[in-house]
Amino acid sequence: MSLNSSSRSPQTIQNCSSPTPTTFGMFLSMYLDTVSGNLLSILTISSDSHLHTLLYFFLTNLSLADIGFTSTTTPKMLNNIHTHRKIISYVDCLIQLSLLNFFWMYGSLLLTTMAYDCCIRYIEPQNLSSVSEFLLLGLSEDPELEPLLFGLFLSMYLITVTGNLLIILAVTSDWYLHPPMYFFLSNLSLADIGFISTTVPKMLVNSQTQRKSITYVGCLTQVSFFNLFGSLNSLLLTTMAYDQFVAICHPLHYIVIMNPHPCGLLVLISFLISLLESQLHLSVVLPLSFCTDVEVPHFFCEAPQLLNLACSDTSTNTILLYCFGAIFGGVPVSGILCSYTQIVSSILRVLSSGGKYKAFSTCGSRLSVVCLFYGTGLGVYLSSAVSSSARKGTVASVMYTMVIPMLNPFIYSLRNRDIKRALQRILSRTT
Fold it and tell me: Which of 114, 257, 393, 413 is buried deepest, with most CB atoms within 10 A?
């Protein structure tokens, strides 16, 4: 009798500890309720113009944070219950841990911001900004130049989007273009499309309709997405410089160092850091109060420009802006310069003059684009934070918001033989 009871006890414990279909159904219904409820909130707020206020703007972001928070853990748990497998890889575990902490911190900061917004709204209502929209003055106030600028920037936008979409199509459809370099390149193309699409379409619409207004919430959204894609572009350029450093300086260890899991983790970390930077820039702009009839001497909303137009004291905000610029701009620049310094020193040790010329030609063109992007971007960013000049830096902004995303497909890809062959194969299939 004792033998029978002892032999059955492990099975009894396993049955008691194993999840039942009721547990699966309960957590699945909770997950679907959470996702659908938050998606309904986002849809309601985005579709109703009466809900385009700061409170509902924060609520939309909180709904996104809640969806991300519950989607980090619940789907994996439901899959484990359904398949009776309790395994998660080491890299997936790290990704889950990073996302869980990120969305938890993001939600906590949003709740704090919403509490601060309620405090300001009900305790100090006289300090609230009465501005409901801004006026984007654009590049020129001359009506005769408007058609020329419209055609120029429309063609630049179409070339940028088409070129980057072709790169993404070539990389995703050709098996020979699946090394890490092209994986980073396709993500850079996505970042370039998002970066230029944040500013140019609104400018083209304003130029065509002769209306230069943008809502307050629309301006904050533009600030957020501009910094998100700009920072993502910067970090991906740094990642690509590191990839090239490993390929040239440590070719024997390249496959081990740059295998798919670390590459995916690098892109994920770049996106999370970019999202953090965009929210930090938004936190600098949100406490500002503005006077009526605010005219932005630019073709898009940018945090430094809004600081110059605020009626309240912006000394603390300016210091924070400098700190963010030094951290999120200086660290990637240092990484790129360090990588290319090591690359140049390795190239100089190559005996073949032909190899030196080819390597310097590739690295020189890429480094020139990096210098233009960071030089114009950081120059305009930091100078506008301390200068009240009306139009200073607007033309330079065109360089890093339009010209650089348009040049990236030519510099990084269309001069590449593998990309050309992949595009030729795609064109031959369509014809």
Answer: 413
